[in-house]
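As described in the Methods, two query proteins were run sequentially through the folding procedure within a single session, without resetting any intermediate state between them. The first query and its resulting structure tokens are shown here.
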Amino acid sequence: MAACPEVLPLPEAVVGSVLLLVLSSNPGPNIVAIVAPTVTLGVLAIVLGVLGWLFFVVKKKRQTEGTYRPSAEESSGPRSVAAPDALKLPKEERLI
């Protein structure tokens, strides 16, 4: 039988078929079962590492780069009220 010249197999379909045929005929361990979890865990580890790094960078920036708004503090008052006896005067010196 002659193949129709109008119907050409797609390269992706041929490669997929060959790959499926090779993997299914291999009596050894299934390579997909080994590669898929390894790649998934690797990508997950990279994503978690990047997110952790971003978290620490943002946290450090918030500590070191604040905004100074004296008008807001004037209207709301100081954050910590100092105790009235925080600045005690020294004892009076007397002559002998």
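Immediately afterward, the second query was submitted; its sequence and tokens are:
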Amino acid sequence: MALRPGLVKRFLSTSIFTSQSSPAAIASASASASASASASPPSTTLFVSGLNKRTTSEKLQEAFSKFGEVVHARVVTDRASGYSKGFGFVNYATLEDAEKGMKGMDAQFLDGWVIFAEYARPRTPPGQSAYPETNQHIG
């Protein structure tokens, strides 16, 4: 079974593990997580997960603008209810700004919640999986 890139990093960054883990274990987990995060090609668009349900697009833009010129920031909301889905996207003007924003905001607090920033992956066509290795049939 393949794990989604960044999932181990998120799991190990919870307060349960960070207070009990040795520095060597944390460094090892961080290195493997950053290696999997770097598998996505650099992009001017960042995917931001772990957002507080009350975080607005304006707050997201304000937080990420400390690291470069933000062209657009958007918190994704449910069409029916209008409530945040807990993730969003930030578009930077340059790749350098996007890299600074990703490094500066990944695993940081925003509105009381730890957020995670990574390069956004391109959309997959409908009917295709973003993770082809999970499409294996058993039998």
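DSSP finds five helices and five strands in the chain. We note this only descriptively and draw no conclusion about the first query from it.
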